[in-house]
Design goal:
The chain is globular. The chain starts with a helix and ends with a strand. The strands form 4 sheets. Strands 1, 5, 6, 8, 12, 13, 14 and 15 form an 8-stranded mixed sheet that branches. A 3-stranded antiparallel sheet has the order 9-10-11. A two-stranded antiparallel sheet has the order 2-7. The chain has 386 residues and is an alpha/beta fold. Helix 1 runs antiparallel to helix 2 and helix 7 runs parallel beside helix 14. The chain is built from 14 helices and 15 strands.
């Protein structure tokens, strides 16, 4: 069957790449057209040699509505939709399977997305996605770009696990456990006290008695992390055949809600540092990488709330300021990647914005992994799931 020299050489090249990318091998041979179906059928014994087996590298995605995703998949004839970008402009070619003339499916990357308000249980939340990564539904977030990059780089199978909801602030709804409150004096010389973790309401004028509401600081953080832990504790329900996992990294795309209140924006750096440390501790993943991305409309040098948050992200990723984050935290500057509009308007639903920023975030994660010589090794201690 392999008497043809060209075919043999192609196989050798693919096997070398397959050893580097493991389960990505089969997506590669199908989408790049190295072999005919007959040849492929003859090498179905190779998965056991190439795929790593039952361990999964997990990447947790958190944030607010744009991490959730508002990039429109269709209609295919509308510029700005994913269908138009892929089918007409031939961008993001890995998303399309030319053999089947349909959206490609990555069987080495599982995509799970859960949406819940506050600290509601998993059962009372919405499981929006639970499938091997492909284009489905009506909208996308950055997960397709992220999944492609980390999937290609990982020696294990990958789970992209998204837990978030829209209109949430890091300094209020997503405030990490143990965060203290703070004070901020506004432009009218009024001093406000902002809630510590599990305090309520969000803020109150200094010297007055706070009147709690039906929501408290960190309530969304509690819910998103609890739902994430539920999925990981029931891993085989969400990733058939998987028996253990590593938390390889966290992706964070957020900031719109905080940018609208300078009391939250000026505290963003402190809260982001706390978030990174708390997530690593809570998930027992001290070596997990962390990638954040800025608001797409914010230009470097801006002095508004968005600019303050952009500076905070750059500072947290600055190893001179935070030596403990050297080589394990990165910030993506999103403005050059955005196709227009703003985070508050969900970038006009332009799918290319979500793809471009997702790819940049995924690439940033891979660069952190490479710098740590961690492409082919474990990221944190594997947890077995009963």
């Amino acid at each position: 069957l392999f008497s043809d020299l060209l075919t043999r050489r192609r196989l050798e090249r693919v096997l070398v790449a397959g050893r580097q990318h493991r389960c990505s091998f089969f997506n590669m041979v199908f989408t790049m057209g190295y072999f005919t179906p007959a040849v492929l059928a003859s090498i179905l014994v190779l998965p056991a040699l190439i795929c790593s087996g039952d361990k999964v590298d997990v990447y947790v995605l958190m944030g607010q509505s744009n991490m959730l995703g508002e990039g429109k998949i269709g209609p295919d004839n509308v510029n700005g939709s994913l269908g138009y970008a892929v089918k007409t402009e031939h961008k993001y070619p890995y998303l399309w399977n030319h053999s089947s003339n349909s959206w490609a499916v990555r069987e080495d990357v599982r995509y799970v997305e859960v949406i819940g308000s506050g600290n509601s249980s998993f059962e009372r939340s919405s499981l929006v996605h639970n499938e091997f990564m492909t284009v489905t539904g009506k909208v996308i977030g950055p997960e397709l770009g992220i999944g492609n990059y980390v999937g290609n780089a990982s020696s294990n199978r990958v789970m992209i696990l998204k837990a978030c909801i829209g209109n949430r602030a890091l300094g209020w709804d997503l405030l990490p456990p143990g965060s203290p409150g703070w004070e901020y004096k506004d432009s009218k010389n009024v001093t406000w006290e902002y809630a510590a973790y599990h305090q309520s309401p969000e803020r109150w004028e200094k010297g007055t008695t706070p009147k709690p509401i039906g929501w408290m600081a960190g309530e969304q953080y509690d819910g998103d992390t609890n739902r994430t832990e539920f999925i990981l504790s029931n891993l085989t329900r969400f990733f058939p055949g998987a028996t253990s996992y590593d938390i390889a990294g966290f992706f964070w795309w957020q900031g719109d809600r905080d940018s609208r209140d300078m009391g939250l924006a000026t505290r963003y750096e402190v809260n982001l540092v706390k978030l990174i440390k708390t997530l690593r501790t809570q998930f027992n993943a001290p070596n997990a990488k962390f990638v954040t991305a800025s608001l797409g409309q914010t230009v470097n040098g801006s002095k508004d709330g968005g600019g303050v948050i952009l500076d905070a992200m750059f500072d947290v990723a600055n190893a001179e300021k935070y030596p403990e984050f050297k080589g394990n935290v990165a910030a993506v500057y999103s403005h050059p990647l955005s196709m227009g509009s703003s985070s508050g308007a969900h970038y006009g639903g332009n799918a290319e914005t979500y793809m471009n920023i997702g790819q940049a975030m995924g690439d940033a994660m891979v660069q952190l992994m490479k710098a740590d010589n961690n492409i082919e090794t474990s990221h944190s201690k594997a947890r077995k799931v009963d």
